[in-house]
Amino acid sequence: LCTDQSALDAWIEPADGEIFPAVDDASYQRDLGFVFEFFGQTWQSIYVGANGYVTFGAGDEEYVISLGNHFDTPRISVLYHDLDPLATWESEGDGFVHMGSGPDGSVVVTWYQLQTYGVETQISTAQLQLHPDGAITLVWLDVDAPNAIVGLSDGSGIPQDFAETDYSLATDCVQR
Question: What is the predicted pLDDT for the residue at 95?
């Protein structure tokens, strides 16, 4: 999928919010402030996972990156990878996981400059925006996370007709 919108144009600096404790593989439940419909179910809260995803209905502290783990829970994987906020913090990096408010009552979750577990040189930044009208926006500023999973899951397992796409060799979009 190509878009002519720059990630910088889609990025939202939240007006307020909370920086989560720098804990490896943690998951935190937080209220959305609105009812969000996801795969026909409505949710009033999400679980923010340190490993680049949010889940609905239950937290997940899984760090093993697999399609089975991605699809076993209602989830939005923005950058499902073994990210390590604790190591980022201990190395005096600027990384953190943050949840705050965006325009029109949206919720913005940011995984900012987090390193891959055990690899100080692999740093990634991604953001999820959940809008009260049901829209979902994913934004990636910098990604150095090999084998990350991006996508949505209804939690019912890997779909029979699922076709995996490898974007690691994708080229830049060409504007026409």
Answer: 85
